[in-house]
TrEMBL record:
Coiled-coil annotated residue ranges, if any: none
PROSITE patterns on file: B12_BINDING
Protein name per Swiss-Prot or TrEMBL: OAM dimerization domain-containing protein
InterPro entries: Cobalamin-bd, Cobalamin-bd_sf, KamE_N, KamE_N_sf
B12-binding domain segment(s): 105-249
Length: 251
């Protein structure tokens, strides 16, 4: 494997710097619109910029795809990401740890909050059917899952967490328009902080395709899961955060 830490994009030949971007402009499709798209791409640092696709999207909007060269470099040594810092366990291992160490079922309450009705993601994590060939948390014998579904208000969620004596609350936020996912998450974590004293609060987990996983502190949650999350990763995190890394409290 290459030792290189500084890389450039690859289009036709190694290191040629070619990238493809897509965007929509609020103009009808004509020659001027195409020129405007190229101008924007130039301002974004693509030089030369080639328009490869333009299609009118309803009245007065055009969608563009532009292909062009950038001169920017990426320094892999400076990339910062949140990496998994706990072991990935099988369903059998998760069940065994919960049974042996917690000696009761681990209670999980999940929901899509606010006006968000995109339940496919949270269902993929919670429901037996799961995702990508992996079963969801309902399949785990030692987990008790309460899935509240779509458009749940924060007070309803707090109430359900109390009723179910939730060890963890899993919230999904897919819509990001006007930063709704950030506002809703902050509102949710503040409500839990107000309703329950530290030490009695469930683990707060939020997930969705457009979260920045490094924003836990800012959003007041314990963990953020992004695109492509699997139920096994979530179950393993629950065991890590609630049991194995809290040796003293559950021994
Ligand atoms: C299906 C869909 C719908 C369905 C939702 C059906 C349902 N029951 O969920 C319907 C038709 C209802 C819908 C409606 C709308 N939608 Co829609 N929808 C989609 C679509 C096509 C797919 C989403 C999806 O199911 N992905 C598959 C799942 C498995 O992926 P996921 O959600 O990312 O989940 C994974 C991870 O993110 C993570 N995860 C997610 N949540 C959680 C939670 C936890 C706790 C954890 C651990 C992990 C986790 O794990 C999951 C598994 O890996 C997307 C576009 C796209 N291709 O993504 C648009 C999209 C999300 N929708 C969009 C929009 C705008 C809308 C509407 C506002 C449209 C309208 N004008 O009416 C409405 C809003 C309705 C509402 N009130 O929320 C936009 C959002 C844009 C934005 N910036 O926010 C998108 C991106 C489309 C687009 N390109 O414009 N939508």
């Amino acid at each position: 494997m290459s030792e290189k830490t500084v890389v450039r994009p690859y289009g036709d030949t190694t290191g040629d710097g070619m990238v493809q971007v897509s965007f929509t402009l609020p103009v009808p499709h004509d020659k001027r619109a195409e020129g405007a798209a190229v101008q924007l791409a130039n301002k974004m640092g693509l030089d030369p910029a080639m328009l490869v696709h333009a299609r009118q999207m309803g009245d007065g909007f055009t969608f563009f795809v532009v292909y062009g060269r950038v001169n920017h470099l990426v320094d892999l040594a400076k990339v910062q990401v949140v990496e998994r810092d706990y072991p990935l366990l099988s369903a059998k291992e998760v069940n065994a740890v919960v049974k042996r160490r917690l000696r009761r079922k681990l209670s999980v309450v999940g929901a899509c909050i606010g006006t968000d009705a995109h339940t496919v993601g949270i269902d993929a994590i919670l429901n037996v059917k799961g995702i990508a060939g992996e079963k969801g948390l309902e399949y785990y014998r030692e987990l008790k899952v309460t899935n509240l579904g779509a458009q749940v208000s924060v007070p309803e969620l707090v109430e359900a967490a109390r009723r179910e004596r939730a060890d963890a609350v899993l919230v999904s936020q897919v819509v990001t328009q006007r930063d709704a996912h950030l506002h809703n998450t902050r509102e949710m974590s503040a409500a839990f902080r107000e309703a329950m004293p530290a030490g009695k609060r469930p683990l707060l987990i939020v997930g969705g395709p457009r979260f920045d996983e490094s924003m836990t502190g800012e959003l007041g949650v314990d963990r953020i899961f992004g695109r492509g999350t699997t139920p096994g990763e979530v179950a393993s995190y629950l065991v890590h955060a609630l049991i194995t890394s809290r040796k003293a409290s559950v021994a």
